Amino acid sequence: MRYRVGEAASLLGVSDDTVRRWVDAGRLRSTRTASGRHEIEGADLARLAQEVADEQSADDTGRTRHSARNRLRGIVTRVVRDGVMAQVELQAGPFRVVSLISREAADELGLEPGVVAVASVKATNVAVDHVERA
């Protein structure tokens, strides 16, 4: 399967220009169509998506610090606290993540709107659906 630059950008959560820069720099391979447009192989796009995810989850030494593989870095947009619990909303690229944690944890982490945080997702069952392209 091949993707156009705009599709690749949407899947990676970056701008079209970023994808073009990665192509120009050789970080992402592409082929040109007869009309001159770049097309990117799905396997190459998947490889880059994993690289980008690994870069975002690594600390300054380059090592992943946690066992959770599904880490979504974003900005806290809302925190609703009650006596015991806190509902935290995080915008991670195009994804809105809502988590219910203890109020004590939210306070200790200093979670409030505008703070950068990471949602670590661990689940025993995750459904994945195939999306038909238009």
Description:
One of its GO terms (biological process) is molybdate ion transport. The chain has helices at residues 5-12, 16-25, 42-57, 103-109, and strands at residues 2-4, 31-32, 38-41, 70-81, 85-92, 95-102, 116-121. The model has no long low-confidence stretch (mean pLDDT 85). Strand 4 (70-81) and strand 5 form a beta hairpin. It is an alpha+beta fold. The protein is 31% helix and 32% strand. The chain has four helices and seven strands. Strands 6-5-4-7 form a four-stranded antiparallel sheet. It folds into two domains: 2-57, Multidrug-efflux Transporter Regulator, Chain: A, Domain 2 (Orthogonal Bundle); 70-121, RNA polymerase II/Efflux pump adaptor protein, barrel-sandwich hybrid domain (OB fold (Dihydrolipoamide Acetyltransferase, E2P)).
